TrEMBL record:
Keywords: Membrane, Transmembrane, Transmembrane helix. This is Stage III sporulation protein AB. Pfam families: Spore_III_AB (PF09548). It comes from Thermoanaerobacterium aotearoense SCUT27. The chain crosses the membrane at residues 6-23, 154-170.
Length: 171
């Protein structure tokens, strides 16, 4: 009886590891989509509402998904801390500090590059910066969807198959 329980636990653990690995692809896609929609909202807030970046980030933190919302809240808090950070510096500090954001290093490089141009020029150049970042993030999203399609099913199946192989070995 104990042997059967052990085999079931090995199988469940192995399958869970496979599903957890596959979940990273799903979360990356969701995070990229959330950043894309947030950047579109941010440019709208800056262009039409003409509120400060700090207020725009605080507003975005309320409407964005959890990880991205925490990021925008952190940027807003850094800007409001009266420590003299520019918007670009606050953006980069927040990207370094925020945890579990589910992005690749290339995604973060794009966001850091976008942040360097944030708040440094007029609205026309800001719009160009937003469009460039949006296009690059859309390409990253396309790549993420493609790798997700390839790898999610693989990791899920691999987790189950490795569990079955371990169980067979112990029989």
């Amino acid at each position: 009886m104990l042997k059967i329980v052990g085999m079931v636990l090995v199988l469940i653990s192995s399958a869970m590891i496979g599903y957890m690995k596959a979940l990273k692809y799903t979360l990356r896609r969701q995070t990229l989509r959330s950043f894309l929609s947030s950047l579109n909202l941010l440019i709208t807030e800056i262009t039409y509402s003409q509120i400060t970046l700090s207020e725009a980030f605080a507003k975005l933190s309320e409407t964005s998904e959890s990880g991205v919302g925490r990021f925008f809240l952190l940027v807003s808090r850094i800007l409001n801390s009266n420590e003299g950070y520019t918007a670009g510096e606050a953006w980069e500090i927040a990207l370094d500090k925020v945890e579990n954001i589910n992005l690749s290093q290339d995604d973060i490089k794009i966001l850091k590059s976008f942040g360097k141009g944030l708040g440094n020029s007029d609205i026309y150049n800001q719009e160009k910066n937003f469009k460039l970042a949006s296009e690059l993030l859309k390409k990253q999203l396309t790549d993420a969807e493609e790798s997700s399609r390839k790898n999610e099913r693989l990791y899920k199946s691999l987790g189950i198959l490795i569990g079955i192989a371990v169980v067979i070995i112990f029989l």
